[in-house]
Design a protein that fits this description.
By secondary structure, the protein is of the alpha+beta class. The strands form 2 sheets. It has a 5-stranded antiparallel beta sheet with strand order 8-7-6-5-9. The chain has a 4-stranded antiparallel beta sheet with strand order 1-2-3-4. 14% of the residues are buried. The chain is rod-shaped and about 95 Å long. The chain is built from 5 helices and 9 strands, in the order ααββββααβββββα.
């Protein structure tokens, strides 16, 4: 049971006690009964609002993906979920090809829909390229890629198409296994 549900249950217990006082159980004073009636009315309103919030509350989980606005192409992943109402998120702006990390109040993202399978795949692919110091689908000659289920070296890159020695133009979305720079660093160490 969440802390909020426990608090709502405690408020309900208090409301039951006030209802008993209002109905004359434990007191004969009309002044006390009237105060209990007014307090009970306000307490029931608060309980109703809390229950409504509880029903509509988005629960953000670390590692889950959401989209901010499909027309702008913002996809984000929750990277930290604090006990306060703040969420640490990693945003990917597909138009600019950039990543940024933010801490946002959950109300700012409360109505954001889940990212689709395609959007999650795009985020992960862009994140992989970003980890290599590249923008999404930024290949260079000498990169080691996995294309057509085979490891291949990129020979040339022309108009967003990559060409390898074995297969010519690589189709689909080749996986950037190792950049040319990473290969050079590995060769120097070896």
């Amino acid at each position: 049971m969440t802390e909020q549900k426990i608090n709502v249950e405690k408020l309900r217990e208090t409301a039951r006690d006030l209802r008993n006082i209002k109905n004359g159980i434990g007191t004969t004073s009309n002044k006390v009964k009237m105060a209990a009636f007014i307090t009970l009315k306000h307490l029931n309103e608060v309980i109703g609002r809390l229950e409504l919030l509880e029903d509509n509350q988005q629960t953000f989980k670390v590692g889950e993906y959401y989209k901010k606005d499909s027309s702008f192409g913002y996809i984000y992943k929750v990277i930290e979920n604090s006990m306060t109402e703040m969420q640490s998120v990693k945003f990917y702006d597909s138009a600019a090809g950039t990543f940024k990390e933010f801490t946002l109040h959950e109300k700012a993202i409360a109505h954001d829909p889940d990212a689709t399978t395609e959007e999650i795949a795009l985020f992960k692919r862009a994140e992989h390229f970003h980890s290599k110091g590249r923008k999404l689908n930024e290949f260079r000659a000498g990169d080691l890629v996995i294309a057509d289920d085979d490891y291949e070296i990129v020979e040339t890159v022309e108009s967003n198409a990559i060409f390898t020695k074995k297969h010519g133009m690589a189709l689909g979305h080749p996986f950037l296994f190792m950049t040319a720079e990473e290969q050079e660093a590995t060769e120097v160490k070896g």
